[in-house]
Amino acid sequence: MSNSLSVAAITATLRTLLFSHLQGDFPDVDVTTMPPDKARSKDATHHQINIFLFQVTHNPNLRNMEMPTQGRMNEGGFSPLALRLSYMLTAYAPADDDVAAHKVLGKAMLVLHDHAVLGPEELRTSLPGNDLYQQVERVRITPDQLSLEDVSKMWTAFQSQYRISVIYQVSAVLIESTRARRSPLPVLRSQISSQAGLPAPFPVLQAVLPPDPQTGARLGETVVLQGGNLAGDTVAVRFNHPQWTAPVDVTASDITAARLSVAIPNSPATWPAGMYSVAAVIVRAGEPTRTTNALPLALAPSLTSITVGARAGDNSVTLTVGFEPQVLVEQRVSLLVGDREVSAPTRATAVASLAFVVPDAPTGEQYVRLRVDGVDSLRVDRSVTPPVFHVSQRVTLP
């Protein structure tokens, strides 16, 4: 890699390369590296090529890549400053003769075409003190293309008359970081062993099981957590809900190394329905407190009452539904009647009942479900074979 003189070294190399190959055909040629508004003086009477560095960008392919350098194995460094340089090539001729200027431009483009890779010696001699020639990645010249509008805007920004120009990219320029490298001591002896089937050396959760065979838990029910290394002097289960400002720990019971149980508090006002994250917190004497990975648990709402109103003139029916736990203002709530979903009305506080207006309501027997933040009330009774729908969630619409 190279030092901070690399950008200047590229510009100097291009200037030297163009001058050495153009002066044979154009003895009076001058190669400059000025901005377009300052490149050509008003009284100039010679051929001229101006190669102007108008943009420096990061090279996205090499920006975060640690390049190989001289040193020992396992000595990590820092990724280099990888740059991509954009140049604009413009030709001038005596008396602003466009044909003569195009001759110079064509020759200059041929020079860059035939020297698409800058050699180490060219880079070394272009600018004293630079070490760009030592980098592993070669420096390449690639033609680029800007739209006529973008080129015109560039000339307008310099308040200069537009002239035909060609764009080139030069890459990669890798400037080595000056931060100290990491140099650990060498390994005297390497020894690697493995054994299949070993349990994890730290507590880990593998499954959260609601009361069998339900898909979610309800207030007051017991949940089983399975995993490894779960035993401890004190074990609690940490619950967290998106609507809470802090998690809540509940003491576990029936604790073994492979499983434990926890009863969800029957607190309708403080434990909202929805998705919870669940983790075990294990305290052992003489060891730091350990917290397992977190797994999801669905806390389902329960329907406590359903009142069916009379059918209105617009063919709608109002269902007043009581439930627990309470739903918060921020929670998304809806009632599913058969295969139709009805959004809940707005509310200013936490509530334990809501009136849902079902437009163009169907008639006859329907099953209803309450959905809170994507979690439905448990509608299937799986304690019998075959399973059946809960009768408590069946209504008859007039």
Care to describe what's here?
The protein has 398 residues and is mainly beta. It has three domains: 170 residues, STM4215-like (2-Layer Sandwich), CATH 3.30.2000; 96 residues, Sandwich (Immunoglobulin-like); 96 residues, Immunoglobulin-like, CATH 2.60.40. The protein has five helices and 24 strands. Strands 1-2-3-6-5-4 form a six-stranded mixed β-sheet. A hairpin with a 7-residue loop joins strand 9 and strand 10.
Annotate the secondary structure layout:
Layout: H1 6-22, E1 30-32, H2 36-39, E2 48-58, E3 81-92, H3 98-114, E4 117-118, H4 120-126, E5 139-144, H5 148-157, E6 165-175, E7 204-209, E8 222-228, E9 234-240, E10 248-251, E11 259-263, E12 274-283, E13 290-291, E14 295-299, E15 302-308, E16 317-327, E17 333-337, E18 340-343, E19 351-358, E20 364-372, E21 375-376, E22 380-381, E23 388-389, E24 394-397
Parallel strand pairs: 1-2
Antiparallel strand pairs: 2-3, 3-6, 4-5, 5-6, 7-8, 8-11, 9-10, 9-12, 12-13, 12-14, 15-16, 16-19, 17-18, 17-20, 20-21, 20-24, 22-23
InterPro entries: Pvc16_N
Organism: Pyxidicoccus parkwayensis
Domain Pvc16 N-terminal: 9-188
Task: Offer a few descriptive terms.
Immunoglobulin-like, six-stranded mixed sheet, STM4215-like, DUF4255 domain-containing protein, five-stranded antiparallel sheet, 398 residues, single chain, Pvc16_N, 24 strands, 3 domains, mainly beta
